[in-house]
Amino acid sequence: MTRSNDTIRVLIPLKLRKKNGRPKIMPPTDYSPSEDQTQDPHILRAIGRAWGWRRRMEAGEFATIQELAEAVGLAERHVSRQLRLAYLAPEVLKRLTCGREASAVSLYDLCFLAGETWQEQAERAFHDISAEL
Question: Does the predicted TM-score (pTM) go above 0.90?
Fold first, then answer.
């Protein structure tokens, strides 16, 4: 147990700035992110959203992509394209979300990989990275 006069202070040198009207925490100027954090937050967010949409459609909440698009307030074309991310190969999803590997293709191109075989998906999504190793 600690006594009432025992105090632990933790100082974290952060700055608060407003960006687009919202507060944003800024790291110290000498901070450099580690190289193992190469995940693209946009890709992670898109994959999570696609899986959520897939679950809702499989549960019968929506019968068509058009109904889903109207419900989430996005264009049907955008929802249709992003929904494909939920059908990527398990190995590709694992490497993108857990393996901390950056994709060699953009989020837009990643959406079109679902039509490929699982082996081709992995080769195309990570071709630059595999060649460097």
Answer: no
